[in-house]
Write a structure and sequence with these properties.
homodimer, about 190 residues, Arc Repressor Mutant, subunit A, Tetracycline Repressor, domain 2, 2 domains, HTH_TetR (chains A, B), DNA-binding (chains A, B)
Chain lengths: ~190, ~190
């Protein structure tokens, strides 16, 4: 997220951000991403192009901010009653969402217009938050749990790496196999 | 790599590609990436802007092709006499190179102008090739070895994920720890 965009929550600043983000989403739905220009977005949002440039620098930073918003999880992970089931269910969902054509294009947009790495960090923070929710529940149930970084490194990272760099090697079984590897090979000793 | 760029190796086509890539590298060294425009690149390369547009579509595809060339490993992995040492040495080098500011910016460029995923796939193919060289040598020595995908999923992927999404959690010890995890936890049963 550009520091400028996050600077003033509430008030006019928040309204401008909301209007501009909404304009991008509408135009992407209508035209696809290749065709978007700042004047077109500004006109749809009812602001001047210079407002957009002042706030986002260039269009790739704006698209990155919008993409990160769309990657925000809408609900907490499902609670199926056991760590293994919760992780498998979440990993299969995550892979399906992120490897879909819109998912891939949001990830690409988020990384592309992100000079300071803040938006990429936010994507990762969303995954950490979901994983932590699952681990906290399991701990509360009295289950033995791996740590967050084990799951980020050995479940989330392999899925994201294949999505970005090795497409075509992805299915639900791959997500489940990664969780199985954590359970049989990477659990801390009790 | 855009199919157009790969279509005609040799002859005029290869000379144009070479001149344009060299122009990009020179201008990046002189000005940084933010300032590059197609007319500027074309003028330095001694070709017309329309030659560049015809071949690469837009500047982000050209920057992606140049970035992938720069990510090509220049030498095979060092042979230190054992699988463990070879992998640790290679992983530490890979992490250092990819997490450096130029490394990060090549990875970002490679992903950004890559509508068909060919350049991202090439980045991954380079890593697979290096890993396979190490594994083939170890097999020839009679060592017990993990498979390529285990190393891609549990050594390369975690490093690349942190480079892209969780910067600030990276050092040589992290690379060595991932290799240790493979040795103690993820080796196939003999």
């Amino acid at each position: 997220m550009s520091p400028k965009a996050a600077a003033r929550p509430g008030g006019r600043s928040a309204r401008v951000q909301q209007a501009v983000h909404a304009a991008v989403r509408e135009l992407q739905a209508e035209h696809g991403r290749a065709e978007l220009t700042v004047p077109q977005i500004a006109s749809r949002a009812g602001v001047t192009p210079s407002t957009v440039y002042r706030r986002w620098g260039d269009i790739s930073e704006l698209l990155s901010d919008v993409a990160v918003e769309r990657l925000r999880p809408e609900t907490p992970p499902a609670d199926l009653g056991s760590l293994r089931e919760d992780l498998e269910h979440w990993a299969v969902d995550f892979l399906e969402e992120m490897s879909s054509p819109p998912g891939r294009s949001y990830i690409r947009d988020a990384l592309a217009g992100d000079p300071d790495g803040g938006n990429a960090g936010q994507c990762s923070a969303y995954a950490v938050e979901q994983v932590d929710t699952i681990l906290d529940r399991a701990t509360a149930r009295g289950e033995h749990v791996p740590d967050t970084d084990t799951l980020m490194d050995h479940v989330v990272a392999p899925m994201m790496y294949r999505i970005l760099f090795r497409p075509g090697l992805l299915d639900a079984q791959y997500a489940r196999d990664l969780v199985t590897t954590v359970f049989y090979r990477l659990m801390p000793l009790p």
